[in-house]
Structures are given as structure tokens and as C-alpha cells.
Amino acid sequence: MSAEELAKLAQNPVGNLISVPFQNNTNLNFGPEKGTQNILNIQPVIPISINRDWNIITRTIVPIIWMPSLGPDLESTDGIGDTVFTAFLSPAKPGHWIWGAGPVVQMPTNTSKELGNGNWGLGP
């Protein structure tokens, strides 16, 4: 593949390319104490070829969170938040439109109550 083709494939959310992107979000003035929250999302994307026409693209998002103090008598906390898993069925060779359809599952993997909601979730 050329560098341009590889760059396009890397930008395609349902592209047939294994990748492990990291996304960092810093939230300033967070909570009543106006602290700084930091969330690092580790997002491995693994495509699975079903046949020459179809792929299943899996994406898992694991947030690593640093949470500032939420009150004068509370300490800051860090750990893992709730994990989100998606699996999209997508054409192996998309046309003008790039699309994928499939489920999303939220798993309560939070290591403390402040870092997630402790619930399972499922949706389209």
C-alpha cells in the first residue's frame, strides 16, 4: 500500500487495519473543587475477515482515569473506568458510504465507584 492509502485506511473507523490508538482527554475545572481530571482511552481495533466481502471490526475502549478530589474531605482517585466493546459488520470494500452495524456492550470494570457506574449496558 502507498502511504496515502495507508493513511486513508487508518482514518476509516471500520477499516481492515489492526491499530491501538490512544486518546487522552484532560478536563480542566472538573467538579466542585475545580480540579483537573485526566482520562487516557486505550482503544485497540482488531478487524476479523469473514470472507472477501465482509469484515467484523472490533473496538474495545479501556479508560484509565485520574480523578481529582470531589470535595474538601475526599481524596483523589485513579484506576480503570467502565470498558466499552463494539463489533461492527462492515463491507470489506466500502463504496461511497462507509458504514458498519453491530452491538455495543458496556462492562462494569471500574476499579472504584467514582470511576464508573457499575452497570452492564447493551445496545445497537
Write a concise keyword list for the protein shown above.
124 residues; mainly beta; 8-stranded antiparallel sheet; 1 helix; elongated
The fraction of residues in strands falls at: over 45%
Residues in helices, as a percent range: under 10%
Principal-axes shape call:
elongated
Structural class assignment = mainly beta
Given as residue ranges, the uncertain stretches (5+ residues, pLDDT < 50) are none
Explain this structure.
With 124 residues, the protein is mainly beta. 7% of the residues lie in helices and 45% in strands. It has one helix at residues 3-11; strands at 22-30, 35-42, 45-49, 54-67, 77-80, 83-91, 104-107, 121-123. Strands 1, 2, 3, 4, 5, 6, 7 and 8 form an eight-stranded antiparallel beta sheet that branches. β1 and β2 (35-42) form a beta hairpin. The mean pLDDT is 91.
Secondary structure elements and their pairing?
Layout: H1 3-11, E1 22-30, E2 35-42, E3 45-49, E4 54-67, E5 77-80, E6 83-91, E7 104-107, E8 121-123
Antiparallel strand pairs: 1-2, 2-4, 3-4, 4-5, 4-6, 6-7, 7-8
Give a brief rundown of this model.
With 124 residues, the protein is mostly beta strands. Helices cover 7% and strands 45% of the residues.
